[in-house]
Design goal:
Strand content: 25-35%
Strand order of the largest sheet: 9-4-1-11-10
Number of helices: 12
Number of strands: 18
Radius of gyration: 32 Å
Shape: elongated
Structural class: alpha+beta
Helix content: 25-40%
Number of domains: 3
Largest sheet: 5 strands, mixed
Order of helices and strands: EHHEEHHHHEEEEHEHEEEEHEEHEEEEHH
Length: 411
């Protein structure tokens, strides 16, 4: 599984994300050819620079956007034209972009439309896109989708984002930072935020929409293949960059389940019986937790660890043998040490020993407790003494059988 992680050290914008993709290996020629598939005559090309932001090298992207008329009347008409979501949908859907690029692009614009509609108190289809509807922002979003397809990204993750404070001039006039649409996207997607002393815009609506549409906000385990560093347009007191990490993540199947239910209206004497039956039908572990429920009633949380294939059997038993009306089932993964039972001969008789292996080495040997109790009583010695002697005897035997076992003896 190929994944991408956004390290939003100094925020995120569409052009920073695009620059990071190019820096990671997205060919400029491929990106430019994809842009030409969208019917935007204003797009003339893409300029990429290797720059320094502070002490760090990064890739800065500037799109070459031109207007075809220079007279002031056209400029006024051009700048007063605002695209609706339907206009952008028609533009993207009528293009020759691949299906996945079109879907990803529209998913991002849908998030933008929802945020804009909320902050302006209008419907999604009636939203007038201003800054985010400009040609360069449309291309930033399409470019993000193209990059994800190029690298075959299956999942996107992200860090928290820093928020600047202050004000920004927009076509709606002077607005506070973060911009209202950005703040709404952060709230909608529950994007985690961190404080920043910046008095400029660090997270743009386009950047926030990319994260809100695509990202899970956690740092994943991964094997890195590519790193890309995109530069912001401004120079700040710190390197104004965002980084992307592209790599692989092994998909581990959830092989086990945790099954739980809370019980406050059942004779507790029956719980021990239920535990015994659960173990008989395959439960790997069963445990009780004292809790308080509504009306301050003392209650018991019954938890079962089981294999996935035993779900139906265990749930059925819980519903039949307890007073619960329902159980919770959560998939979990279980990493297990190899184990083996060996019978060890002691001067008191034979006793089963549970051996624990890690990487082929025996690292623990524990006598089976019930057998220790039985044989200790027969020998007329304490259980504690018997366990010590049984463990010592098993250690000597195993030391001869296995080369240099590292055994932790239980006191």
């Amino acid at each position: 599984m190929i994944i991408l992680y956004c390290d939003c050290f100094s925020g995120i914008s569409g052009d920073m994300f695009l620059g990071a993709l190019i820096d990671a290996g997205l060919p400029i020629e491929h990106l430019s050819e994809q842009f030409k598939l969208v019917n935007l005559p204003e797009y003339q090309g893409i300029n990429v620079e290797n720059v320094h932001k502070g002490a760090l090298a990064a890739t800065l992207v500037k799109l070459d956007i031109t207007e075809h008329h220079e007279d002031s009347s056209f400029k006024h008409e051009y700048h007063s034209y605002h695209r609706h979501l339907g206009d952008i949908r028609n533009l993207i859907e009528s293009s020759d972009l691949s299906k996945s690029v079109r879907q990803t692009s529209m998913s991002i614009f849908q998030k933008l439309a929802e945020a804009e509609a909320k902050v302006h108190g209008t419907s999604i289809e009636d939203v007038h896109f201003h800054e985010v509807g400009a040609v360069d922002s449309i291309l930033d979003i399409v470019g993000a989708a193209v990059g994800l397809e190029y690298f075959n990204i299956e999942a996107v993750y992200s860090s928290a984002v820093p928020l600047g404070t202050g004000q920004i001039n927009t076509q709606h006039g002077l607005l506070p930072l973060p911009a209202p649409a950005t703040l709404e996207l952060i709230q909608m997607a529950q994007i985690p935020v961190t404080a920043s002393k910046a008095t400029v815009e660090l997270v743009t609506p386009t950047g926030a929409a990319i994260l809100a549409s695509l990202a899970t906000f956690q740092q994943p385990d991964m094997k890195m293949k590519f790193v890309g560093i995109g530069a912001g347009q401004r120079d700040l007191e710190w390197p104004n960059i965002m980084r992307i990490l592209i790599g692989t993540q092994e998909e581990v199947a959830d092989t086990h389940l945790e099954i739980e239910t809370n019980i406050d209206d059942m004779n507790p004497q029956l719980l021990g019986h239920v535990m015994t039956k659960l173990f008989k039908i395959g439960a790997l572990d069963v445990y009780f937790t004292p809790i308080y429920m509504k009306k301050n009633r003392p209650a018991t949380k019954l938890s079962v660890i089981a294999r996935k294939e035993d779900e139906a059997t265990i749930c059925n038993l819980l519903l039949r043998e307890t007073s619960t009306l329902g159980v919770r089932v959560k998939p979990i993964r279980r990493n297990e040490a190899k184990r083996e039972i060996r019978t060890i001969e002691t001067k008191y008789g034979k006793i089963p020993m549970k051996l624990k292996f890690v990487d082929g080495e025996i690292i623990q040997a524990v006598p089976e407790f019930d057998s220790c109790v039985l044989l200790a009583e027969q020998a007329g010695i304490s259980v504690n003494q018997f366990i010590h002697e049984a463990t010592a005897a098993s250690y000597e035997l195993l030391k001869r059988e296995f080369f240099n076992p590292k055994i932790e003896l239980n006191d």
